[in-house]
Specification:
Blueprint lengths: L9 H24 L6 H7 L4 H7 L3 H21 L7 H17 L1 H15 L2 H28 L10 H23 L3 H10 L6
Length: about 200
Amino acid sequence: MGDARPTPSLRERARRAVQSELVEAAQRLFIEQGYEATTVDQIAAAAGMSRRSFFRYFGGKDELVLGKYDRLGEDFADCLAARPVDEPLWVSLRSVVALILSYFSDEEKARGLAAMDQVVNSSDALRAGYLERFDRAQETLAEMARDRAAAAGAPWSDGDPAPRAIVGAAFACLAAAHAASNRWGVPFDEAVDRAMAVVVVAP
């Protein structure tokens, strides 16, 4: 059994669903007409809601763009929580990394991710927000790793950097594999497997 995590309330699940719908609507518009040309009114209309309703879920376009990475961080945590606590952390993290791979194996999701990446890289503020969210996601996973180890009867001592280092290494493998895939056309999943295989993680 995986880590125990609070089950989101019905209200929170409904909120996340609406946020995801808005993000998907925005992605389609960004792909079709670009980020700058896309307005909040257009995004709201594409999702079948009013401008006023839009602002119940996001403070603006920038927050919506970064909201995608908030959702992704939550998905990472949910994936790790679903893994057995006695499974080696590195094996569990391979399943977490597979979430990103699923985006690239789906043509529509890959286009959406590329569109969002392009938007993020066009703005220093958005780039900083993106990096902050990925750092937060890694910290969450590291804390979950500590809880897993304690539940499995092999806790790390306070201040031990190992959980954060292992999680960071998994994300570094993901980044290296992405770069290799883009530069040399290596299949992304194969590049991830290769990158993670060469890292030796202490039990």
